[in-house]
Here is the input.
Amino acid sequence: MAIAVNDSNFNELVIKSDKPVVIDFWATWCGPCRMIAPIIDELHTEYEGKAVIAKCDVDSSQGIPVKYGIRNIPTILFFKDGEVKDKIVGATTKAVIVEKINKLM
Here is the structure.
C-alpha cells in the first residue's frame, strides 16, 4: 500500500527525499480516484527502494493541495529533488504513470 503523505510529514517524505516521489492526490468520494488506487498500490510495490509512491487525501490534508494548486482529483505530481517535475490530472493508465516515473530515474 502506498505511503500516506500529509501536511505534517510532507517535508520529510517528499522535499527531503533522495529518490523520485510520486503523489496521488485523492479523496474517498472520488470515483476516478478509486479506479487508479490499485495502480498506485502496485507501483508502490514495484518501485520499492527506487522511488517513493505516496497518496495524499485532500480532505484530511488540505495544506499540500493548496500549496501545489490541486483543483481536480485525481492529480498525480512527480517530484525530484524536492521540486515538481511533472503532473497528470485525471484518471490515467499504469503505462503513462510508469513512463513518467522512469523519466525521473
Q: What stands out?
A: The first strand starts at residue 3 and ends at 4. The helical segments are 10-15, 31-46, 63-67, 94-104.
